[in-house]
Specification:
Chain lengths: 380, 308
């Protein structure tokens, strides 16, 4: 064949064949090519819902009247509110909201129906956990029309005089923790968790595969080393790196984005340690599973994607279907987001935060156990 | 268990899948001995060494290494063994001093700082101690690797092709050092492909496809081979080599520089085979076979365990 032909079919085909052979040998990459679109389709198609419904709502009833019940039924029928519990004091309500057990608290005051019937416009108080403004926005927007139309049904006959003109009820919505609905307040603290997840898992993911690839693993294993020494020894330096990131983001949050910092910063730093450790454990375990650095990066990506999408960082957690929430509950980022938003925006203390810590600790323990088990003390 | 032996193992076997890489090898190495481990690539030398120092779990085998059970006590063996890998396996992004210090810490060497400093001085690495290991030439990397293997004062050194890719001068210096250390009581198991190095070993073993084919001193190995060898010099050797190889009684005709070694196991048939070529133009002389003749013979007569 002439040297000047721009394309030799035989050579071109040889390269195509070689690429296919290599693709077939590299199972993990191939798995990702298939897996990522499937995962993304499932997540974006089913899990992610920008208009969350059935938000858990608590009731504080001061009045057991017909009108009150009508209102509640209408709210329930709107699909936005799901009444999960009835509370008996302001303090209880405060705590439920702080812990994030409920999204809304509806307070129907004493003498609600009495005041209503006298035409004196009783107050209906709706308190919303507005740390994530997108989670509550639509529900709140629907409230006013909801109330008007439902009461109109009741206000016939002798009560018809109440119907027209000014609304018969003084609806007060308190968007708690983030009254102006500034989304940065929600995103910037969350970003801390996202950044830590990405970098911590990746850095440690490379830690052991790098030794394997450079051949230094053989040397390390020929020395009297124990798995825990190697694994922990590789984790500790990155805790330091993690704290640098935490510091950077906190400073930016405070001075660039003016995120309120209602809670204790030392508590935040302490909980960050647990979260960093969880991600490092994940990374080091990937490192023992992966054959080379590329695989470690791929595994990181596979972990990062659901963390980003299912943790409540990008989309309201309560907008996801149950199965997606269950996956989300396993991920450390989900719990860390609740912790950090709780501390910074709600001013939560250890008491409210405690419940989110143990799932992270459990995750760390399980993952690290797998890592220690999988760490091969020989080259077999 | 015999205390005279640094290595005394039997039946050492390693399989990868259904492919036996090391097949029931027995080896005895006396304390203070420099033992050469020879054989073609893929013959199982590295695998055997890795089993000795606990880097690979043996599928079968028993015996002792430095008085410890070779299967069950590999953690204790590791502490007294220095293993120099075939490929440079120290940290290229650490300096010479940092690498040595790391190794010393791993072995919990007492008076670490002093030991590391002495090691650097002894090897003449003083001026380069801050240089990154990755920037060193092959010869210097090898020096560093040896120094690192010695830092915890091991009594057995397993060196896997320590002189591959090293220039002749550095190679000589290296062997000089090995013999000095052996005099002090260190035991060496060294794999090599170089015949001159093999001849400098006290004893040798030859492996092929996982089997130990022969062992002993160089002279014993030659004697055991039962080979008769003639050397020939003259014109157009490749041409007669081709004819000789198909002659009955000739096992091999191997060029050695400007001469050629012709060998066979039956002396008389060999003499008859070369008779037609003993003309004016050629100088024939019976010689003692060299180690290389023997090894080429062994390599040719063993069978690949991948073939059916």
């Amino acid at each position: 064949m002439s040297q000047r032909t721009p394309l030799s079919l035989a050579r071109f085909w040889a390269i195509v064949t070689k690429e296919f052979i290599q693709m077939r040998r590299d199972r993990l990459t191939f798995g990702m090519i298939i897996g990522i679109p499937v995962v993304q389709l499932m997540l974006f198609g089913y899990a992610i819902n920008g208009d969350p419904k059935h938000l858990p709502t608590a009731l504080l009833l001061g009045d057991q009247s017909q009108q009150g019940r009508t209102l509640l039924t209408a709210m329930k029928n709107s699909d936005y509110f799901r009444f999960v519990t009835e509370l008996h004091s302001e303090a209880e309500a405060e705590e439920a909201l702080a812990r994030g057990d409920v999204q809304f608290i509806i307070t129907i005051p004493e003498n609600f129906s009495h005041t209503l019937l006298r035409g004196e416009r009783p107050t209906l108080l709706v308190e919303a956990d507005a740390t994530d403004p997108s989670a509550t926005g639509n529900a709140i927007a629907s409230l006013r029309t909801l109330i008007d139309s439902s009461l109109r049904q009741d206000m016939k006959g002798t009560l018809a005089f109440l119907a027209p003109g000014v609304p018969p009820i003084d609806l007060r919505v308190h968007a708690r923790y983030n009254p102006e609905g500034i989304s940065q307040y929600n995103i910037v603290p969350g970003l801390m968790g996202v950044v830590l997840t990405m970098t911590m898992v990746m850095i440690t993911g490379l830690a052991i595969t790098r030794e394997r690839e450079r051949g230094t693993m053989e040397n390390l294993l020929s020395m009297p080393t124990r798995p825990l020494e190697v694994l922990l020894g590789k984790i500790i330096p990155y805790i330091f790196v993690g704290y640098i990131q935490v510091g950077l983001i906190l400073v930016a949050a405070r001075f660039l984005f003016h995120v309120p910092m209602a809670g204790s910063i030392p508590l935040l730093l302490l909980t960050s340690l647990i979260f960093i450790a969880a991600n490092l454990a994940m990374g080091i375990t990937f490192s023992t599973l992966a054959k080379n650095q590329l695989q470690a990066v791929q595994m990181t990506f596979f972990f990062f994607l659901p963390s980003l999408l299912l943790s409540g960082f990008m989309f309201p957690f309560r907008g996801m279907p149950e199965w997606a929430q269950m996956i989300g509950e396993v991920l450390p980022l989900t719990h860390f987001l609740r912790i950090i938003r709780g501390i910074l925006l709600k001013g939560n203390g250890i008491h409210e935060v405690r419940g989110e810590l143990w799932p992270i600790l459990l995750f760390t323990t399980v993952v690290l156990t797998i890592g220690v088990k999988r760490y091969r003390k020989t080259l077999d | 268990m015999n205390d005279d032996f640094a290595i005394d193992v039997r039946g050492m076997t390693k399989r990868f899948g259904d492919h036996t890489v090391v097949n029931g090898i027995a080896l005895q190495v006396r304390r203070g001995e420099v033992y050469g481990f020879l054989g073609p690539n893929g013959s199982g030398k590295t695998t055997f060494i890795r089993m000795l120092c606990g880097l690979l779990a043996a599928d079968a085998g028993e015996g002792h290494c430095l008085g410890f059970d070779v299967i069950r006590e590999s953690e204790l063996i590791k502490r007294q063994v220095g293993y120099m890998t075939q490929r440079f396996s120290f940290y290229e992004d650490l300096s010479i001093a940092e690498n040595l210090d790391f190794v010393a810490r791993m072995y919990e060497v007492p008076e670490r700082k002093k030991v590391v400093r002495e090691s650097i001085d002894r090897l003449g690495l003083g001026g380069r101690q801050r240089q990154l290991a990755g920037e060193l030439s092959g010869g210097w990397k090898q020096r560093l690797a040896l120094a690192a293997c010695l830092i915890h004062g091991p009594s057995l050194l397993l060196l896997d092709e320590p002189t591959a890719g090293v220039d002749p001068k550095a190679r000589r210096d290296f062997w000089e050092q090995i013999h000095q250390l052996a005099v002090q009581g260190l035991t060496f198991l060294i794999t090599t492909h170089y015949m001159d190095e093999a001849e400098r070993c006290d004893r040798l073993a030859y492996l092929s496809y996982g089997n130990l084919l022969t062992n002993g001193t160089a002279a014993e190995v030659v004697a055991q081979s039962g080979l008769t060898t003639w050397t020939v010099s003259g014109p157009d050797l490749p041409h007669i080599a081709q004819q000789l190889r198909s002659a009955p009684g000739v096992l091999q005709a191997v060029p050695f520089g400007t001469t050629m070694h012709v060998s066979g196991t039956d002396g008389e048939r060999l003499t008859r085979a070369i008779a037609p070529y003993r003309t004016e133009a050629y100088r024939w002389q019976p010689i003692t076979p060299s180690l290389e003749d023997v090894f080429i013979h062994l390599m040719g007569s063993s069978k690949d365990n991948y073939s059916p």
